[in-house]
Amino acid sequence: MSLTDYYSKRNFKQTSEPSGEVKQSKKSSGIYVIQKHQATHLHYDLRLEMEGVLKSWAIPKEPPMQPNLKRLAVGTEDHPIEYAKFEGVIPEGGYGAGKVEIWDKGTFIPIELDDTKIIISIKGEKLKGDYCLIKLRPKIDPKNWLFFKKKISK
Ligand code: MN
Asked: Which end of the chain has fewer CB atoms at under 10 Å, N or C?
Protein backbone atom coordinates (compact mmCIF):
# COMPACT_ATOMS: atom_id res chain seq x y z
CA MET A 1 0.00 0.00 0.00
CA SER A 2 1.19 3.49 -0.72
CA LEU A 3 0.28 7.04 0.22
CA THR A 4 1.61 8.53 -3.03
CA ASP A 5 -1.83 9.66 -4.22
CA TYR A 6 -2.63 11.08 -0.78
CA TYR A 7 0.56 13.18 -0.74
CA SER A 8 0.20 14.32 -4.35
CA LYS A 9 -3.26 15.82 -3.74
CA ARG A 10 -2.30 17.94 -0.73
CA ASN A 11 -0.09 20.87 0.26
CA PHE A 12 0.85 20.27 3.90
CA LYS A 13 1.90 23.90 4.28
CA GLN A 14 -1.75 24.84 3.79
CA THR A 15 -3.84 22.00 5.24
CA SER A 16 -3.87 20.80 8.84
CA GLU A 17 -4.44 17.22 7.66
CA PRO A 18 -1.70 14.80 8.83
CA SER A 19 1.12 13.82 6.48
CA GLY A 20 1.72 10.45 8.19
CA GLU A 21 3.31 7.29 6.86
CA VAL A 22 2.48 3.61 6.26
CA LYS A 23 2.29 1.82 9.62
CA GLN A 24 1.83 -1.94 9.73
CA SER A 25 -0.02 -3.42 12.70
CA LYS A 26 -0.29 -7.00 13.96
CA LYS A 27 -3.60 -6.55 15.78
CA SER A 28 -6.52 -8.73 14.68
CA SER A 29 -8.90 -5.77 14.79
CA GLY A 30 -8.41 -2.51 12.95
CA ILE A 31 -9.43 1.11 13.18
CA TYR A 32 -12.85 1.96 11.76
CA VAL A 33 -13.92 5.55 11.25
CA ILE A 34 -16.43 7.50 9.19
CA GLN A 35 -15.80 11.21 8.70
CA LYS A 36 -18.61 13.52 7.66
CA HIS A 37 -17.07 15.77 5.03
CA GLN A 38 -18.83 18.97 4.02
CA ALA A 39 -16.93 19.49 0.76
CA THR A 40 -18.50 20.75 -2.48
CA HIS A 41 -20.91 17.87 -1.94
CA LEU A 42 -21.60 16.51 1.53
CA HIS A 43 -20.37 12.93 1.81
CA TYR A 44 -19.20 10.40 4.36
CA ASP A 45 -15.67 8.99 4.20
CA LEU A 46 -15.46 5.38 5.39
CA ARG A 47 -11.94 4.40 6.43
CA LEU A 48 -10.69 0.96 7.47
CA GLU A 49 -7.18 0.14 8.71
CA MET A 50 -5.71 -2.38 6.29
CA GLU A 51 -2.10 -3.09 5.30
CA GLY A 52 -0.68 -0.13 7.22
CA VAL A 53 -2.99 2.53 5.79
CA LEU A 54 -6.62 3.59 5.97
CA LYS A 55 -8.41 2.17 2.93
CA SER A 56 -10.99 4.80 2.03
CA TRP A 57 -14.37 5.11 0.34
CA ALA A 58 -16.61 8.16 -0.16
CA ILE A 59 -20.29 7.48 0.50
CA PRO A 60 -22.60 10.19 -0.94
CA LYS A 61 -25.46 9.52 1.52
CA GLU A 62 -25.67 8.76 5.24
CA PRO A 63 -24.17 5.32 5.91
CA PRO A 64 -26.73 2.56 6.60
CA MET A 65 -27.48 1.70 10.23
CA GLN A 66 -30.12 -0.88 9.22
CA PRO A 67 -30.08 -3.76 6.72
CA ASN A 68 -31.85 -3.28 3.35
CA LEU A 69 -30.20 0.09 2.68
CA LYS A 70 -27.50 -0.16 0.05
CA ARG A 71 -25.12 2.74 -0.42
CA LEU A 72 -22.71 3.48 -3.23
CA ALA A 73 -19.16 3.69 -1.84
CA VAL A 74 -16.56 5.12 -4.21
CA GLY A 75 -12.98 4.05 -3.58
CA THR A 76 -10.63 6.97 -2.88
CA GLU A 77 -6.93 7.22 -2.14
CA ASP A 78 -5.37 5.46 0.88
CA HIS A 79 -4.97 7.75 3.89
CA PRO A 80 -2.39 7.56 6.70
CA ILE A 81 -3.48 5.91 9.96
CA GLU A 82 -3.28 9.29 11.77
CA TYR A 83 -6.11 10.56 9.59
CA ALA A 84 -8.59 8.56 11.71
CA LYS A 85 -8.38 11.29 14.34
CA PHE A 86 -8.54 14.23 11.96
CA GLU A 87 -11.25 16.83 12.39
CA GLY A 88 -11.03 20.37 11.10
CA VAL A 89 -11.54 22.60 8.14
CA ILE A 90 -9.55 22.00 4.96
CA PRO A 91 -8.85 25.51 3.59
CA GLU A 92 -10.46 27.00 0.48
CA GLY A 93 -8.58 26.11 -2.67
CA GLY A 94 -7.15 22.90 -1.18
CA TYR A 95 -8.15 19.36 -2.15
CA GLY A 96 -11.40 18.46 -0.36
CA ALA A 97 -11.87 22.00 1.01
CA GLY A 98 -14.51 22.08 3.74
CA LYS A 99 -15.32 20.83 7.21
CA VAL A 100 -14.39 17.30 8.34
CA GLU A 101 -15.87 15.82 11.52
CA ILE A 102 -15.87 12.31 12.93
CA TRP A 103 -19.37 10.86 12.41
CA ASP A 104 -18.67 7.38 13.81
CA LYS A 105 -15.63 5.50 15.08
CA GLY A 106 -14.57 2.23 16.64
CA THR A 107 -12.96 -0.98 15.43
CA PHE A 108 -13.68 -3.73 12.94
CA ILE A 109 -12.73 -7.37 12.55
CA PRO A 110 -12.22 -8.74 9.03
CA ILE A 111 -14.38 -11.77 8.20
CA GLU A 112 -13.71 -12.15 4.49
CA LEU A 113 -11.36 -10.08 2.35
CA ASP A 114 -10.65 -10.35 -1.34
CA ASP A 115 -10.30 -8.02 -4.34
CA THR A 116 -14.02 -7.68 -4.96
CA LYS A 117 -15.58 -8.43 -1.57
CA ILE A 118 -14.91 -7.21 1.97
CA ILE A 119 -16.99 -8.54 4.85
CA ILE A 120 -16.30 -7.07 8.28
CA SER A 121 -17.80 -6.94 11.72
CA ILE A 122 -18.00 -3.28 12.79
CA LYS A 123 -18.00 -2.15 16.40
CA GLY A 124 -18.83 1.53 16.16
CA GLU A 125 -21.14 3.82 18.06
CA LYS A 126 -23.59 4.17 15.15
CA LEU A 127 -22.67 1.21 12.93
CA LYS A 128 -22.69 -2.17 14.67
CA GLY A 129 -22.75 -5.65 13.14
CA ASP A 130 -21.64 -7.32 9.96
CA TYR A 131 -21.19 -5.16 6.89
CA CYS A 132 -20.33 -5.90 3.27
CA LEU A 133 -18.47 -3.94 0.65
CA ILE A 134 -18.99 -5.52 -2.76
CA LYS A 135 -17.51 -4.31 -6.02
CA LEU A 136 -20.41 -3.63 -8.36
CA ARG A 137 -18.74 -4.23 -11.73
CA PRO A 138 -15.05 -4.90 -11.05
CA LYS A 139 -13.91 -4.73 -14.67
CA ILE A 140 -15.93 -1.67 -15.73
CA ASP A 141 -16.02 0.48 -12.56
CA PRO A 142 -13.25 -0.77 -10.26
CA LYS A 143 -13.84 2.14 -7.83
CA ASN A 144 -17.55 1.58 -7.32
CA TRP A 145 -18.59 -0.58 -4.39
CA LEU A 146 -21.88 -1.21 -2.61
CA PHE A 147 -21.85 -0.83 1.17
CA PHE A 148 -24.61 -2.41 3.23
CA LYS A 149 -25.39 -4.11 6.50
CA LYS A 150 -25.95 -7.87 6.47
CA LYS A 151 -29.37 -9.02 7.61
CA ILE A 152 -28.05 -11.53 10.10
CA SER A 153 -25.00 -10.52 12.08
CA LYS A 154 -22.93 -13.02 14.01
MN1 MN B 1 -13.91 13.33 1.62
From this structure: C
Alpha helices in the chain (DSSP H): 4-8
- CA dist 132 to 80, 84, 91, 122, Å? 23, 20, 33, 10
Tell how far the Cα of 44 is from the centroid of ligand 1, in angstroms: 7
The predicted structure's pLDDT at residue 128: 97
Rounded distance from Cα 55 to ligand 1 centre (Å): 13
DSSP reduced 3-state for 143 = strand
Nearest by Cα to 72 from 46, 111, 110: 46
What is the bridge-based pairing of β-strands 88-90 and 71-79? Answer: unpaired
Model confidence pLDDT, tens digit, residues 62-72: 999 999 899 99
- What protein residues have CB closer than 5 angstroms to ion ligand 1? 37, 45
